[in-house]
Amino acid sequence: MCAIRDGYSRRVVGWAIEDHLRTDLVEDALRQAVTLRSRLPAKVIFHADRGTQYTSEQIADACADLPVLRSMGRAGVCWDNAAAESFWSTLKTEFYNRRHWPTKADAKQAVGAWIEERYNRRRRHSAIGMISPVRFEELHPQTAQAA
């Protein structure tokens, strides 16, 4: 799974789930994020770690096409990607590790529903005043002008 989260509102704006970790997975999530936002502000930064999927020429080309600036954390410094790691911890602790699905398709659908219905719309985040990311964007429309 690859998930792309808005750093200001905490909303997961793009995600892709497959049975591989190829670069196509990252590109699919990135393109979904840009599609959700539709019209982007002048500067959008896509921050990631230094995994080969994120540092690939394919992602560089996709970012140039969209247009999105790339940012990568320092090698071996987990704090540079703390926002993404926080999301993964929440997903695993509050949802994924508590369930079993009969098929991969069922798991994929359930994770997508959890992101949209629970994480983005109902889960409260202390960093944004104990409201959900979608509610935060409603109260601060300049943060989601392209939504």
Summarize the structure.
It is built from 6 helices and 4 strands.
Computed Rg: 15 Å
Q: Number of helical runs?
A: 6
- What name does the CATH topology carry? Nucleotidyltransferase, domain 5
The overall pLDDT average reads 89
Overall geometric form: globular
**CATH C-level category:** Alpha Beta
What is the H-and-E element order?
EEHEHHEHHH
User: Mind summarizing the main beta sheet?
Assistant: 2 strands, antiparallel
The count of DSSP E runs of length 2 or more, i.e. the number of strands, is 4
| CATH homologous superfamily assignment | Ribonuclease H-like superfamily/Ribonuclease H
Main structural class: alpha+beta
Number of domains as seen in the coordinates: 1
Helix fraction, binned, reads 40-55%
Describe it for me?
- With 147 residues, this protein is α+β, with helices and mostly antiparallel strands.
- 44% of the residues lie in helices and 12% in strands.
- The protein contains six helices and four strands.
- It has helices at 23-37, 52-55, 57-65, 82-94, 104-119, 133-139, and strands at residues 2-5, 12-16, 45-48, 69-72.
- The protein starts with a strand and ends in an 8-residue tail after the last helix.
